[in-house]
Design goal:
1831 residues
Length: 1831
């Protein structure tokens, strides 16, 4: 996982990877194929393959471990890959997530734990795995797709993805490709390879780090790949482009990048084992928790039966003479564990290399070099083998040129031994070690030993700093290397934060030298701070020891201030480092360390440092541990006070470089819990994430550090032998406290210095009071026999070690002993106090007579420094009170008067007045500059008192928590006419009674008297006519006064000529009859008499201004005073007017003004009840730059909308006019003068204006809390911002009740705070989530649209928080329209369907709501569709309505009550008065024409309504039923020309549409036939037999018709099969055959369900003539136009009998028995292929010409790769059959296509004929083989 989150990843995509989408490809490097020791892999040409180890995981799955270097033998990379052949039926791939959770409950889990969960859930055996997509570090939500087992957990979110399709194949897909055919998918941030080529654009990313990828080869197999990094020289990592080139080299035609860095994980199950193992080396040292994963599974069934053995080691290199232990594991056919054969024996394939123990597998090299193959045999069969190399090294190197060591440190010195660029395993005795050129600390030659050698390990000497050279030489060769060694070099402090002395002797103060201020003085150290831009803030300052702030060494330390209090579910940092780092860090340090002071209660933040290593790799090093809450590890700060911390560099490669201002990083990481807890595991509040740490002496460590850098520890604090826990309660007043201290034991431990022990009881240091004792033998510090009064107390111990490291611990507890009567003292205030008066803190005792002394420290708020102390009767000052300015503390000292006795004081107490138990009173003057709403606060951190006890006295202590008291005043001041150029009037009222008071003086803040109030309590002055700030107060003659009251006189805003500006129409309760209009005008020019003139557009166009009606409005003088520069503030007239009693669906013209100055004319149209509605919606618009908003409003203006919604935070600051001017200008187009806008109150509307007065004035809003409106078929409930739980509960209750009153089709809530939010930086949506979402469930809300979070998201339909597609509410977070966009997080695991996409600068919504569908489209600022969602419901959910025409241009559906305008409507509706059909075409009513609907015909008259009864149309009579349906036409005799040109009279039947009928028609229950071609088209056949040619079949049938044209006798017809054989006989009545038993001409026939005759006729005496029962198909309706396929009717040449036939046809139910069909097979001839015709048409297609075989109806073709196969008719490449459709007279051309032909140079073919009759097929003989000629 990156150190960057999604936003930083986005930055990289936009700068480099996003360019990939253009697919600008350059010529790729040539890829070389290298085979190493039996395994093959390809690498790019700039890399050299040094080792590849191949393992079989399971059938169809191979694993390879790959090692490569560059051409110079450097920059080694170790990589791991698995290749899976998805064509293998037993294997597949699947996606994984934490706990295999498919519900969208986000989290993180290691890859292996995800695999276990997936195995448990699916029953699959996972054999290989790799981590998946980028993800939100705060929540674990992946960026892109996640599909598991066919369930779409998350959609693409704009990112490509790797998919397993429903057919089992794999695909790398673009973001826009749908998921509907996907069963498994994980997202990817971007492509690496497309069309077989690495994307060149990736070269823009130079960083080498751990990388992961997944790719698909041309044959469909899949590769998962991981390359280790950040572990130079072992594995340096790869850049993105290097990873892409490697995937290309391995044959991937497509590849996607997966998450890398510390997240990179490759795990597999080695053959013969039962569990996944992490094969790579994670760069963080441990397997990291990640988001999604990708798994390879095998369904191969383990049977435990031995199949083969796997032997290790594999492909390792050893020096000659080595002893190598081989190990074998048994494997079954599935790759699972199996027992080895009992006779299994190790053998060498070539005994010349040495010997091997057949049982143990121990190989002993005899020194011979070469490749050694070790086999495992069972009997004579080799069941497993492996190879190793025995080689002399050809190179020896060390990781670094120099190594720094501590004293007595053992190390291998970073020795690297290679052969042919491969790592060599060496043994003791292989090398000769020597030391050279040893010098001392002064670089003078020395005879001291620098260290010793044993088993190829070096152990440094002890006690002296030495320098030297060590030489390592391979025995009997010249292969050698040297390394410089430094032993005992002490740390070098690089930043001590003290004053800096320049070379010229100039001293620069530390505060200037280490300043991070933007305007810091030059020269300086170049320090700078930064954060990640996720809500945090940071700064630094250098503090002085004299300030009392922590300093570890010298006089200064660096204070790093942090503020993460506003950070949500994100990762944020407070970072400090160098602005322009340059040069390498000197030498080869082994670590970097510093001293850090952690204040009491600091959260468990992560403290880290970043450096570059020699390869430019960023090293992320830890000063504190990372949290792992699953293992109960809090990580982070686990100490209080100073502590030395060090990050190791021992595993990395020098030289190092500083990274920059991201060097030292104090990190808040919500996702892992770092910063959420204190060191004791208590969860902290966000406000506690603000504070500071202190840093001193940043130093480089060079191996040795003899300082004691470990803090001692206060392990426990006990009270009377029982360990104290926080907030413990003791039931005794006599307590002995014991602290146990210890020091970490190591070589340089200095030990606890018990002489530095200190103890504080209730803030009082009792170290030197004689009660504290130390016992070094027990490591204990004790405070003995403390007598405590009942109440709260604190105990604190501290101690240092002998190096000055300190430990401290504090515990808070309470004493509660009900039997104790010890005097207790409390400090209480006297209730509310007024400004300028004194707040009194009374110290009272439970028995004041026993109190002798009191010393109490009172902590006050800053600014409260004017105080006095008074003493009760009997007490006096013991010492002058002291004020500690640094801590804002006052310490008072009281004692009993020497002349007073306890009895006398008791007498005072007995007087029973309120001061009877008082000792002293601290009176604190309330400053005159406090503001209204302030509170007076105090606490007692330390207090001591003495009470009389017998002849002596006892001392007690106590503490007290913070108390608060309200601050009030005597008078209030209000203002009027605060307009520049005018006198202003101030009114003074009594704060308690609210009545105006006379004779009270009013002063400017500087004390200038303005005058006294008159009898009405007013004072008028001309002092403030210019725009300026006003600060005044009122004070009476007794000194009683008001708070300083601030106001200002304002410059005015608006059009300079006084005409209205920003005219808008806003939300109204009844959109069908009302309009709410607002506008702004300029005070002093315009009058405060707002007026609206309005008229119907039709009346205005006719009568002009005379048509106008007048409505008077309201004017509110509104001040906007948000700027500190008062000259920027403005005052305006906010005007509003409501028009009522308007006509429905009517367009009006209006203008606004003050009766004299007018706007231009604008238009609006009222709504229609339940009408289809279209509205737009925009989220938070608060922005100074309105470029994007203007683009969006321009696009909105181009569409027709019925209303609009803005979800709150319309402006960033409602108190600043410029903000309103900006945004209102963007919405000032004419369209917004006619389209109502619903404005939600956001938190920014309340900022500086808690009652939202300004916004309510601007929009004439009914309530800032809630209100509802209805537009067409959409009910909209509006809920404003609130942080109040009670208000939210009230809003929720209102919503349920109000929504129940609405019968609108769709119910919508618009709010500012989202119930399902994406931004966790605030916690003000919790009440909304709980109460409003419940209300939505109860109210049946369909959609809820919210703002606030400045991100886009859409939930799935939710009810009670869970997915409910049918009944749930869809919740939207509506993004923003520019400037402010925040990363989306999902820390609470909400079920989002669309989430996190931020690849846009602004968005808006377009919503269409009709009676059946509610469709939401989301567009970006350029009009690109980002998301779409549709909900359907109701009786008309299919979109089919039953409309009734209202006569007013509207249609209302009878089923769903939805309405719409007829404009643009095409379809049918019924008349509201008589229910008869009416027909519309594109909004126009059809008249005087025929219409058809659902196969019924109508005729609409002049009124557009369908006619009924008998009607004469175009001279012909037609009959319609009571519903307007056509029921009968008319027979008409007409004279036409026959084909000889003679006049003939024929009978035609005119049917619906006004056309004469053609062909078969049923009229009044009888069948007729009308000629459909020729001169006599439409003629009714009658009076005899007629031959009719059937359509399609082209057969002739003979029918008999009566004189009046009625059909009397049908036609028998033999049906033929495709071979021309008779299948059976049918009887046709008209165009349809009959079924069942029928009687025809006195004979009974029986026909099966398919109409075939199955029973011979029987004679019957019944002479009735009836129509037969026909199949389900009905007689065809009359044809009203000439058919496209001509059907002829011919009169027979034989005599036509005209008398009535005696045919009898019955309508009995048919049987279902089918007739028996007999089919015979026929012998076919041999096929013959024309040789010249056999040729390739393309790479995949061949063509043959075959001599036609008589009676054949198809041919079978076989194609072969070789002539031998063709001659033997075996191993055909392709076999196919081809039916004959068209053929020449003597030959048939056959074409065969197959991708198998593609790469075959030669092909041969044979052909044979076949004939299929029924279910039987006959074949002829095969032709001779012919060779296919290449094209």
């Amino acid at each position: 996982m990156k150190t960057f989150n999604k936003e930083e990843g986005k930055h990289m995509l936009k700068k480099a990877v996003k360019k990939f989408l253009s697919v600008v490809l350059a010529t790729a490097m040539v890829v070389s194929s290298i085979t190493v020791y039996g395994a093959s892999v390809k690498v790019p040409e700039d890399r050299v393959l040094t080792s590849v180890k191949e393992y079989s995981i399971a059938p169809g799955i191979k694993e390879k471990h790959i090692t490569t270097v560059d051409k110079d033998g450097n920059n080694q990379v170790q990589a791991y890959m698995a290749e899976v052949d998805l064509k293998t039926s037993s294997i597949g791939m699947m996606a994984g997530y934490k706990n295999y959770d498919k519900t969208g409950k986000w989290g993180m889990q290691t890859v292996r734990d995800q695999a276990k969960a997936a195995e448990k859930a699916t029953g699959k055996t996972i054999v290989a795995a790799i981590n998946g997509d980028y993800f939100d570090m705060g929540t674990g939500q992946p960026w892109g797709s996640l599909v598991m087992g066919g369930d779409i957990v998350q959609t693409q979110n704009g990112y490509p993805y790797f998919a397993i399709m429903k057919d089992g194949t794999a695909d790398c897909r673009e973001a826009y490709e749908p998921l509907d055919d996907v069963v498994e998918a994980i997202g990817s941030p971007f492509f690496l390879v497309k069309d077989g080529k690495a994307l060149e654009e990736l070269a823009a990313d130079p960083y080498a780090m751990p990388r992961c990828a997944v790719g698909i080869k041309a044959d469909g197999s899949v590769i998962i790949y991981e390359a280790d990094g950040r572990q130079a020289p072992k594995s340096c990592g790869q850049s993105l482009y290097e990873t892409a080139k490697q995937m290309e080299a391995m044959g991937c035609v497509e590849a996607l990048y997966l998450d890398g860095g510390g997240s990179a994980t490759f795990a597999s199950r080695t053959e013969g084992t039962d569990s996944l193992e992490v094969k790579n080396s994670p760069s963080d040292g441990t397997e990291r928790k990640v988001s999604s994963s990708l798994f390879i599974y095998s369904d191969a069934k383990a049977n435990g039966e031995f199949d083969h053995a796997t032997i290790s080691p594999l492909e390792e290199v050893y020096t000659p003479g080595s002893t190598v232990q081989f190990e074998a594991k048994g494997v079954d056919s599935a790759g699972s564990k199996a027992d080895l054969p009992k006779d299994a024996t190790f053998v060498l394939k070539d005994d010349s290399f040495g010997t091997i123990d057949g049982t143990t597998g121990q190989f002993v090299s005899n020194g011979t070099e070469g490749t050694v193959e070790v086999q495992l045999k069972s009997g004579d069969k080799v069941v497993g083998s492996t190879t190793i190399e025995v080689r002399k090294p050809d190179s020896i190197t060390f990781v670094n040129d120099e190594v720094n060591l501590g004293f007595e440190e053992e190390t291998d010195l970073g020795l690297t031994v290679k052969w042919n660029n491969r790592q060599v395993n060496y043994v003791d005795g292989d090398f000769i070690w020597t030391t050279e050129n040893v010098t001392d600390a002064n670089k003078q030659p020395s005879d001291l030993s620098i260290g010793t050698f044993k088993d190829n390990k070096f152990t440094s000497s002890d006690g002296n700093t030495l320098y030297g050279t060590i030489r390592c030489k391979y025995k009997n060769s010249d292969i050698q290397a040297t390394i410089n060694v430094v032993v005992g070099l002490q740390p070098t402090v690089v930043y001590d934060f003290e004053d800096h002395t320049m070379e010229d002797g100039t001293v620069i103060p530390a505060a200037d030298w280490y300043s991070t201020a933007a305007d810091k003085k030059e020269p300086n150290a170049g320090f700078k701070t930064m954060n990640y831009g996720r809500g945090g803030n940071e700064s630094t300052e250098v503090v002085d020891i004299a300030s009392g702030e922590p300093v570890r060494f010298g006089n200064h330390s660096l204070k790093l201030n942090y503020d993460f209090s506003q950070c949500g579910a994100v990762t944020e940092g407070a970072c400090v480092g160098l602005e322009n780092p340059s040069g390498d860090i000197p030498g080869t340090p082994t670590g970097i360390g510093m001293y850090v002071y952690a204040p009491e209660g600091i959260p468990n933040f992560w403290l880290r440092i970043q450096l570059y290593d020699a390869n430019g790799t960023v090293l992320n090093l830890n000063f504190t541990e990372e949290a792992n809450l699953d293992e109960h590890k809090l990580g982070g700060f686990d100490w209080t006070g100073w502590k030395y911390v060090e990050a190791s560099l021992k595993d990395y490669q020098a030289p190092y470089k500083f990274l920059g201002n991201n060097m030292i990083r104090l990190m808040f990481v919500n996702g892992t819990g770092m910063g959420l807890f204190d060191k004791d595991g208590n969860k902290i509040q966000p406000s506690d994430r603000k504070g500071a740490i202190y840093i001193d002496n940043i130093q480089f460590v060079y191996g040795a550090n003899t300082d004691d850098t470990d803090n001692p520890s206060i392990d426990t604090i006990s009270a009377n032998g029982t360990e104290l826990n926080d907030d413990a309660v003791l039931d005794t007043n006599n307590v002995t406290f014991t602290a146990r201290a210890s020091d970490l034991q190591n070589k340089y431990t200095s030990g606890v210095d018990f002489t530095t022990a200190n103890v504080w009881l209730d803030g009082v240091n009792l170290t030197n009071g004689g009660s504290m004792h130390t016992d070094e033998s027990k490591d204990e510090i004790s405070l003995n026999n403390q007598k405590l009064a009942n109440g709260k107390h604190t105990i604190k111990f501290s101690v240092r070690d002998k190096f000055g490291n300190e430990a401290s611990k504090t515990k808070t507890f309470e004493v509660k002993n009900k039997d104790d009567n010890t005097v207790t003292i409390n400090a209480t205030s006297q209730g509310e106090v007024n400004i300028g008066d004194e707040a009194n803190i009374d110290f009272t005792a439970s028995d004041v007579s026993k109190v002798n002394e009191l010393t109490a420290t009172v902590k006050l708020a800053k600014g409260y420094s004017d105080y006095s102390v008074s003493y009760a009767e009997g007490f006096e000052q013991a010492k002058e009170p002291e004020y500690n300015k640094a801590n804002n503390q006052v310490t008072i000292y009281a004692k009993k008067k020497a002349s007073e006795t306890s009895n006398q004081i008791a007498t005072y107490a007995d007087t029973a007045n309120e001061d009877s138990n008082k000792i002293a009173t601290l009176s604190v003057k309330i400053p005159l500059d406090v503001s209204a709403g302030s509170k007076f606060s105090y606490s007692i951190p330390s207090a001591t008192y003495k009470i009389a006890a017998g002849d002596g006295e006892e001392t007690y202590t106590f503490v007290q928590d913070t108390e608060y008291t309200d601050i009030g005043d005597y008078y209030t001041i209000s203002f009027s006419d605060l307009i520049e150029g005018m006198d202003i009037t101030m009114s003074v009222k009594d704060s308690k009674t609210g009545k105006r008071v006379k004779g009270v003086s009013v002063y400017k803040e500087d004390g200038e008297l303005l005058g006294k109030t008159d009898l009405r309590g007013n004072i008028t002055t001309s002092k403030f006519q210019e725009a300026q700030a006003i600060s005044v107060y009122a004070q009476d003659d007794n000194g009683h006064r008001s708070f300083i009251t601030k106001a200002q006189t304002y410059a005015t805003a608006g059009n300079e000529d006084g005409t209205p500006t920003f005219v808008k129409v806003n939300a109204v309760k009844d959109s069908t009859s009302m309009k709410n209009i607002t506008w702004v005008s300029k005070p002093g020019v315009s009058e405060d008499t707002p007026v609206v003139l309005y008229a119907k557009k039709s009346d205005y166009e006719k009568d002009g201004d005379a048509a106008f009606k007048k409505v008077e409005g309201k004017c509110k003088l509104t001040s906007l005073s948000g700027y500190s520069d008062v000259k920027e503030n403005r005052i305006i007239y906010a005007n509003s007017a409501e028009i009522s009693n308007l006509d429905v669906d009517t367009t009006y013209v209006y203008k606004v003004g003050d009766g004299d100055l007018w706007s231009k004319e604008y238009k609006f149209t009222t709504a229609y009840k339940n009408e289809d509605t279209k509205f737009f919606l925009v989220g938070d618009t608060q922005a100074e730059d309105t470029t994007i908003i203007s683009k969006i409003t321009d696009m909105i203006s181009k569409e027709h909308y019925d209303f609009g919604v803005q979800t709150g935070d319309f402006v960033d600051d409602p108190t600043k006019y410029n903000y309103w001017d900006n945004i209102l200008t963007a919405f000032d187009g004419d369209v917004f003068k006619g389209v109502d806008m619903i404005h939600v109150t956001g938190n920014h509307e309340l900022a500086g204006d808690p009652d939202s007065t300004i916004a309510k004035n601007m929009f004439n809003i009914e309530s800032e809390h809630h209100y509802s409106v209805t537009y067409g078929n959409v009910y909209v409930a509006v809920i404003g911002y609130t942080a109040s739980k009670n208000q939210t509960i009230e809003d929720a209750k209102w919503l349920v009740e109000d929504a129940a009153k609405s019968n609108a089709k769709w119910k919508v809530v618009v709010s500012h705070q989202p119930p399902y939010g994406t931004n966790e930086t605030t916690h003000d949506c919790e009440n909304v989530h709980k109460y409003i979402s419940e209300a939505c469930d109860q109210a049946g809300i369909d959609f809820m649209f919210s703002g606030h979070d400045h991100a886009y998201a859409r939930t799935n339909p939710l009810k009670a928080g869970t997915r409910d597609t049918e009944n749930g509410t869809v919740y939207y977070v509506c993004g923003s329209t520019g400037e402010k966009s925040y990363p989306a997080t999902n820390v609470r695991g909400y079920d989002f369907a669309k989430f996190g996409n931020t690849d846009y600068d602004g968005i808006y919504f377009s919503v269409d709501a009709n009676a059946s569908e509610f469709k939401v489209d989301v567009y970006d600022q350029d009009g690109n569709l980002l998301d779409t969602y549709t909900k359907s419901k109701g009786e008309c959910a299919n979109g089919i309505h039953d409309y009734v025409y209202q006569g007013d241009g509207h249609l209302i559906c009878k089923k769903c009550d939805g309405s719409r305008k007829v404009d643009g409507y095409t379809g049918i509706a019924t008349n509201k008065d008589n229910g008869l059909p009416m027909f519309f075409a594109n909004g126009n009513l059809d008249k005087n024409r025929w219409e058809t609907n659902d196969n019924d015909n109508y005729y609409v008259g002049e009124d557009g309504v369908a006619v009924t009864g008998k009607n004469t149309i175009d001279g012909k009579e037609y009959t319609f039923d009571e519903n307007g349906k056509f029921v009968r036409g008319s027979f008409v005799e007409e004279v036409v020309k026959d084909k000889k040109g003679k006049d003939v009279t024929i009978t035609r039947y005119y049917t619906a549409g006004g056309s004469y009928a053609l062909m078969w028609q049923e009229i009044d229950g009888n069948l007729y036939y009308f000629q459909n071609s020729g001169k006599e088209m439409g003629r009714m056949l009658s009076g005899g037999q007629w031959i009719i040619t059937t359509r399609g079949k082209n057969t002739k049938r003979t029918y008999t018709f009566a004189k009046d044209g009625k059909l009397t006798v049908g036609a028998f017809e033999d049906e033929l099969d495709s071979d021309g054989n008779v299948k059976g006989t049918r009887y046709y009545w008209g165009d349809n055959y009959v079924t069942g038993e029928v009687e025809i001409k006195g004979k009974k026939y029986k026909f099966d369900e398919n109409g075939y005759m199955v029973k011979e006729p029987e004679t019957t005496t019944d002479t009735t003539t009836e129509k037969p029962t026909t199949p389900a198909t009905t007689t065809q309706k009359p044809t009203t136009q000439k058919p496209t396929t001509e059907v002829t009717t011919q009169k027979p040449t034989t005599e036509v009998t005209t008398q009535k036939p005696t045919t009898v046809v019955t309508t009995q139910k048919p049987t279902t028995k089918k007739p028996t069909t007999v089919v015979t097979t026929q012998k076919l001839g041999k096929a013959s292929v024309a040789k010249k015709s056999a040729k390739r048409v393309s790479k995949k297609k061949i063509s043959l010409m075959v001599k036609k075989v008589n009676k054949a109806n198809g041919y079978q073709v076989r194609v072969y790769k070789t002539k031998k196969n063709a001659n033997n008719n075996k191993k055909a490449l392709v076999t196919c059959t081809k039916k004959v459709v068209k053929a020449n007279k003597n030959a048939v051309t056959i074409k065969v296509t197959s991708k198998k032909f593609k790469n075959k140079k030669t092909l041969y073919a044979r052909v044979r004929a076949f004939r299929k009759v029924g279910k039987n097929t006959s074949y002829g003989k095969w032709s001779k083989p012919v060779k296919i000629k290449n094209k």
